[in-house]
Amino acid sequence: KQLPRPILWVLTDKDDRDSNTQNLKRKFSFFSTDDAAELQLGGYDPDSCADSMHYTPSLSATDFIVGVTSVKFGPHMDGFDAATELLQFTDPTGGEYL
Fold it and tell me: pTM, whole model, 2 decimals?
């Protein structure tokens, strides 16, 4: 069974004459706060960011794949990182999966 094409690929298909989003860039942004989240297709709206955007290159020319070594959620205040690490990359034997 073949997996469906990613939504951003379908939306930006240059050969689909019925689509009104053919000129949409194949970029996306994801933003979240404690009580809301937003997915922006085609890039990002600079007015939705309080700080500068950090870009991460894709590890594939055909898919959205990014290397991740840490994902934290929570505050960083006064030089103290109170964020919770959401990914655990430790091997039960004490080594690292990286």
Answer: 0.46
pLDDT digits (tens, 9 = 90+) for 31-83: 777 787 888 877 778 888 777 777 777 888 877 777 777 777 777 667 677 77
- Residues 45-60 as b/e (b if ≥16 CB within 10 A, e otherwise) read eeeeeeeeeeeeeeee
DSSP letter for 9, please: H
Burial zone of 41 (CB within 10 Å; 0-12 exposed, 13-18 middle, 19+ buried): middle
Q: Is the dihedral of CA 89, 63, 45, 11 positive or negative?
A: negative
Exposed (0-12), middle (13-18) or buried (19+): which is 13, by Cβ within 10 Å? middle
Q: Amino acid identity, residue 65?
A: I
22: closest CA among 36, 8, 33, 35?
8
DSSP state of 61: S
Strand 84-85 with 72-73, pairing: antiparallel
